[in-house]
Amino acid sequence: EVQLVESGGGIVQPGGSLRLSCAASGFAFSGHHMSWVRQAPGKGLEWVSDIKNNGDETYYTDSVKGRFTISRDNAKNTLYLQMNSLKPEDTAVYYCANYVGHWGQGTQVTVSS
Hints:
Blueprint: E1 3-7, E2 10-12, E3 18-25, E4 34-39, E5 45-51, E6 58-60, E7 68-73, E8 78-83, E9 92-98, E10 107-111
């Protein structure tokens, strides 16, 4: 059974940092490109970042470039999203997903003073 389990969300003040993790199991993690996607309250899904299966290429939506860093540890079957300089508009549920339609349950990130 494929499982993607996000963790690391929470409440942080503007300008703060969080690191999200996504533990993967049930599929060949190292062979899959991975994504982070978020959904802000009352809004649709927004793609945030992608990473190629071997980690050598990464992509970001413009609003997070220079603030967020996606990475992965294929030995640990884990995907990460380091989020710095957080803004209130980053408030959302963050999901990890692979390219074949598997998603985690999401982790809530709230940026508020």
